[in-house]
Design a protein that fits this description.
The chain has about 525 residues and is an alpha+beta fold. Among the domains are: about 120 residues, Thrombin, subunit H (Beta Barrel); about 80 residues. The chain is about 35% helix and about 20% strand. The chain has 12 helices and 21 strands. It has a 6-stranded antiparallel beta barrel. The termini are far apart.
């Protein structure tokens, strides 16, 4: 097959089947690389690139599914897919950049300079964004490639010229400047702390809102918390107060975008659907509103300090992301279906219950009990992994793996043993990122309160559901958080009746409000009820 011939490549593109995305992806790689090496006539080369874009975008997304939901370290075989995806994005960027170099006032592509600049910026941005999608640290030089493509567009006087862009779902057009802004906005959106679905929305919305942002060299009267970008540095936007004034420094202004976000949120209150506002057909209103609200400050205003300052800290923390292992670590025994009639008597000797300000003493000879639990945990595969503590705040920890850590999922419930092994805490895995050396860093937010294991089941008409392991957390007046249940994923439904066995007690509860929804859990507030609620 002659991938150096544009006519052959165009004919081949018409025969590709996107459903067989791996084969199609491999064929696209051969086409793009073949034309790069062959250097055919610029106008014919451009025709092939434009014809390939829609299919290429689809198969890239399909291939990325292998690593974007549950990230893998760089040394895993599956991450060859990450290299394939980023490699093809960069090959597309290089192809358009080469065509831009071939364009001249007397040449064939002089009237396509703006399109070539926009396409080059778009694909350099896609290669960088793919690191966020894979929860991988941005590779050296990735930001510099994006900045260089923008500088070339400015130099050629086409940065503000809009061209047709079928891959922009909202505007169907984009300028090189807007493509550049879109990439900057994605990084501001805390991409390592987003689920796959949320990040897809962020990328789409960054294109939607990019026209309302500007870059200029005016710094007078602006606060140090305003954002700027130095096009000579290998990084994105940073607070101006942390940057030196150089000729390559640009100030980012998203004030008009802040007004746009406010307008969208107002429309939501009036019952307008996200799709009619250009946010996408797959966006529920409540989820859209929460995500937009979290983007309001970084996109529209300025940087903000952390609610709880981080303090450098060293040491080790035990961690597990296995649901049953968390319960075992808390209670010291494997979860089992409770008896129909709860046995009477005292609490088990090997359970220690904690509340704020008081503690029920452990059984005699705690060292032997702890050793016995550790042996049982190892036999069951429930022993805690050891992680290095990098820093901490009132609300959570930043941890680093030491070796091959278990594969974790974004917003997964995890159990941690912070210091001395006396208590296990529940936490939400808020972000994760692999370094190039395969080191995994994670940020976790602690769910306030000392958890205890309970058995919970949904009430069903005409039958009995089995019990499942769940966790109960006490109220925290200091943090103004109510008592809550941590239940398996998607259990929450307002006013749903739940039966729980808490030690020797049987209780009936009504679920009230969803406090937090993670990848494998729902945390919700509840009210006690005297009788089981009728279920329909």
């Amino acid at each position: 097959m002659d991938y150096a011939q544009p006519a052959f490549c165009l004919e081949l593109l018409q025969k590709l089947h996107p459903i067989d995305f791996r084969t199609t992806h491999a064929t696209l790689v051969r086409i793009i690389d073949g034309l790069l090496h062959a250097r055919p006539a610029p106008n014919q080369h451009l025709e092939v690139l434009e014809a390939a874009r829609e299919t290429l975008s689809f198969v890239q997304g399909e291939l990325a599914r292998t690593y974007c939901t549950r990230p893998l370290p760089p040394n895993q075989d599956e991450n060859n897919d990450f290299g394939r995806v980023t490699g093809l994005w960069r090959a597309m960027a290089k192809s358009y950049a080469r065509l831009a170099e071939a364009a001249s006032p007397a040449g064939l592509l002089d009237d396509q300079r703006a399109l070539l600049a926009q396409r080059c910026l778009f694909y350099e941005g896609q290669a960088l964004i793919e690191h966020f999608r894979a929860h991988r640290g941005v590779s050296a030089g990735a930001w510099q490639a994006v900045h260089a493509a923008y500088a070339a567009a400015v130099h050629n006087g086409v940065a503000r010229v809009r061209v047709g862009e079928p891959l922009n779902e909202i505007w169907r057009a984009q300028s090189p400047h807007e493509a550049y802004i879109s990439t900057l906005l994605v990084e501001l959106a805390n991409p390592y702390g987003r689920s796959e679905r949320e990040l897809n929305w962020v990328v789409r919305w960054a294109q939607r809102f990019a026209p309302y942002c500007t870059l200029d060299r005016s710094f007078d009267g602006h606060k140090p918390t305003a954002y700027g970008v130095d096009t000579e540095h290998d990084c994105g936007l940073k607070p101006l107060g942390l940057m030196q004034r150089t000729d390559s420094l640009l100030r980012f202004d998203g004030s008009a975008l802040a007004s746009q976000i406010q307008a969208v949120l107002t429309q939501f209150k009036r019952g307008v659907k996200p799709a009619s506002l250009g946010l996408g057909e797959d966006c529920p209103t409540n989820a859209c509103a929460r995500l937009l609200l979290s983007l309001y400050r970084p996109w529209g205003l300025a940087s903000s300090g952390r609610r709880f300052p981080r303090r450098s800290k060293s040491g080790e923390i035990g961690l597990t992301g296995d649901w049953l292992a968390i319960g075992f670590a808390i209670k010291g025994e494997l979860f089992q279906q409770p008896a129909i009639e709860a046995p009477k008597g005292k609490l088990r000797d090997d359970i220690s219950l904690f509340t704020f300000g008081e503690r029920v003493p452990m059984a005699d000879n705690p060292d032997k009990a702890q050793q016995r639990r550790q042996e049982q945990a190892m036999n069951l595969g429930f022993d805690l992994e050891s992680w290095d503590l990098l820093d901490q705040s009132v609300g959570g920890f930043r941890l680093q793996s030491r070796g091959d850590a278990a594969r974790l999922e974004h917003h997964q419930l995890i159990g941690i043993d912070p210091h001395d092994g006396e208590k296990i805490l529940l936490a939400d895995l808020s972000w994760l990122m692999y370094r190039e050396d395969s080191t995994l860093e994670i940020g976790i937010n602690i769910l306030p309160g000392i958890p205890r294991v309970v058995a919970a089941r949904q009430l069903a008409p005409g039958g009995r559901n089995p019990f499942h392991q769940a966790f109960m957390l006490p109220a925290s007046p200091a943090l103004k958080t109510p008592a809550s249940l941590v239940l398996p994923s998607m259990w929450f439904q307002a006013d749903r009746g739940i039966e729980i066995r808490d030690g020797d007690q049987m209780r009936h509860l009504k679920l009230c409000k969803l406090l937090l929804r993670g990848a494998n859990f729902d945390q919700c507030s509840f009210d006690a009820v005297d009788q089981p609620l009728s279920q329909t």
